[in-house]
Amino acid sequence: MVKPFVPQLVYIEPRALEYSLGKKLKEKFEKDGIEIRETTSHNQVRNLPGENDFQKYRIAKSTLVVGVRKTLKFDTSKPSAEYAIPLATGCMGHCHYCYLQTTMGSKPYIRTYVNVEEIFDAADQYMEERAPEETRFEASCTSDIVGVDHLTHSLKQAIEHFGKSTYGKLRFVTKFSHVDHLLDADHKGKTRFRFSVNADYVIKYFEPGTSRLKDRIEAAAKVAEADYPLGFIVAPIYLYDDTWKEGYKELFEQLDAYLPHHARKNLTFELIQHRFTKPAKNTILKNYPMTKLEMEENKRQYRWGKYGIGKYVYPKEDQQDMKETLSDYVHSHFPEAEIAYFT
């Protein structure tokens, strides 16, 4: 079982100590004997330990920056939600295919923001603007928020904040099983707790540093018993060889075996095929030079994207096969579940 994340190195912005969470985290890390450095801003985090880029990247992934979120304008988060709520950035996992490798650029460390009340105030303003329409907030666009929340409890606060709201809903997804501290949160059914799941092959070769499938499913069962609305993101759907259909079939059989029956009436699935950009491919091969991840442009179809950066996705016939196969698995094992989208 993967142990909960403990940073090897912590940077704290001076302004973070003006907030109670910043003070608590500093006291905790001092007590635990973790090295703490001061930084005026996360952009000034430099001279990380390590003799080469390979070592520095891995140390950065175990470094936590405790800071203040200055920009309180939220990004959109389609198709999952209306807005992304920024509680943390970065991830301690080492998923080879992860888009954060390019969006985080040369700063792959984890950041947590301590001005949570200000972030919630901004969320309230977005809800007011859209009322009486419902507003959904995605808490895991730029991080695996569950992976760090056992230290901060920011997510737990957010769950209870949206539980009290009239028009707000919260959503997040995780590859970690460290959920026990969230089970007693007063969510009032307004938070959808999702787990990212995949065929064993994909988890084994491309998702080091994350919880194993069995642990994720067991955590999902706990979450269901705590009456959270539950969901699964099957991503990235990856055609690894001629046995990929069997691998995904086994995934759904395991889900079916573990999930309690009452969790199946309000269950969602999101299906996302593997894709990559040229910049992502270059970064992945630099950070994980021995990866088995297939990224051959001539085997893919080019899809134009935002900001002029297109993505390489599977050819249309493969996409159709993938969509039909996984949809069949969902409907046969969970006939009452909703497939939110395939992309």
Kindly describe this structure:
By secondary structure, the chain is of the alpha/beta class. 35% of the residues lie in helices and 20% in strands. It has eleven helices and 15 strands. The strands form three sheets. An eight-stranded mixed β-sheet has the order 4-5-8-9-10-11-12-15, with helices on one face. It has a five-stranded mixed β-sheet with strand order 2-1-3-7-6, with helices on one face. The model has no long low-confidence stretch (mean pLDDT 94).
Query: Termini, distance in Å?
Result: 31 Å
Strand content: 15-25%
Instruction: Kindly state the number of beta strands.
Output: 15
What number of domains?
1
- CATH architecture assignment: Alpha-Beta Horseshoe
Short description:
It contains eleven helices and 15 strands. The protein has 343 residues and is an alpha/beta fold. The chain starts with 8 loop residues before the first strand and ends with a strand.
Primary descriptors:
343 residues; alpha/beta; pyruvate-formate lyase- activating enzyme; eight-stranded mixed beta sheet; five-stranded mixed beta sheet; 11 helices; globular
Write the layout of secondary structure elements.
Elements: E1 9-12, H1 20-31, E2 35-38, H2 53-60, E3 63-67, E4 76-77, E5 81-84, E6 88-89, H3 100-103, E7 110-113, H4 116-130, E8 135-138, H5 146-152, H6 154-164, E9 168-174, E10 191-197, H7 200-206, H8 213-225, E11 230-237, H9 244-258, E12 267-273, H10 278-287, E13 301-303, E14 311-313, H11 316-333, E15 338-342
Helix pairs in contact: 9-11
